[in-house]
Amino acid sequence: MSLVRASGALAIANLTDQALRVRAVEAASTYDTEMLVEVTRAYMTTASRKGARTSLKTLEAYALAVRDFVPWAQNNGVQLLRPGRRDGGRYVAQLQTRPTLGRGKTGTLSASTVAQYVAGVRALYRALRWAGATEAQPFEDAHVPPDPTPGIVKNPPYMTEIDAVLAQCEPRLAALLLLCAHAGLRISEALGLTLADVDGARLTVRGKGGKIRRVPLGKRVRAVLAALPALSADGRLFEWKYAQATYQMQKAFRAAGYGHVWRGFHAARKHSGTRLYSATRDFTRVGLFLGHSSVDTTRRYVAVQDDDVASEVEFF
């Protein structure tokens, strides 16, 4: 049976059950990577827990995983619709021993990268079950060992670097850094801000999964935002894409003499979490400020001093 190729995730989701099944079976049987990416995207945006609110970042990460797994399966004799019971473990093992291709990095893929790939392929198989193409779950028992090194150790917050780098930033770049380092925004949240989101000492932030939170702004952030004119009719404050913002911030770090410690924007967000925890000693309040749904996540954003309880235990 031959079908006209549907274009896009919504078009695939709108197929009849029979047509969807035929499309998914055909794609899996022929190792059609891009169609399998679209089937996965259709499932994620119409049938997953978050549905249409699934973030673009998640969709892109899962697409990358499918594009990695499908050629591997084809080259290693794995039938996508009838995988062997050990095939999931085989794929995880080769990920764990694969050399990293990250610029300036050595060794094998990080545990977090392996986990991200496996999450994407698990989503692919959920999508294939949703489409009625297979009941296989080759990754159900595949174990992905966690990284033994905490993220706050591998990627600690910037601390003294922030003020030195701010001195090398033009006003708009300084605003971006302060929004991450003082207001605790994710870089995607900061880049998406408009003038209408700023209301005096408060900021309306549209976060992951469509969640909206109100963030208090310190005087330094208020001052730098007040001096920024909008860049477009819709009031956008930044025109950079993520890669462009990264390039600009890396230049500022190098100019400040801290090019060797650049660890991305997330380390700036951890700066705000660490400073707020030092002031409040309350993970719940820090989590609300950062927009976390779990305090366990917040703990990974706070660098606690090794001797944090030294005075409390002094007279035990």
UniProtKB/TrEMBL annotation:
Protein name: Tyrosine-type recombinase/integrase
Gene3D superfamilies assigned: 1.10.150.130, Intergrase catalytic core (1.10.443.10)
Pfam families (UniProt xref): Phage_int_SAM_1 (PF02899), Phage_integrase (PF00589)
Domain (Tyr recombinase): residue spans on this chain: 152-314
Domain Core-binding (CB): 42-129
InterPro entries registered for this protein in UniProt: CB (IPR044068), DNA_brk_join_enz (IPR011010), Integrase-like_cat_sf (IPR013762), Integrase_catalytic (IPR002104), Integrase_recombinase_N (IPR010998), Integrase_SAM-like_N (IPR004107), Tyrosine_recombinase_XerCD (IPR050090)
SUPFAM superfamilies per record: DNA breaking-rejoining enzymes
Family annotation (PROSITE patterns): CB, TYR_RECOMBINASE
Keywords from the named record: DNA integration, DNA recombination, DNA-binding
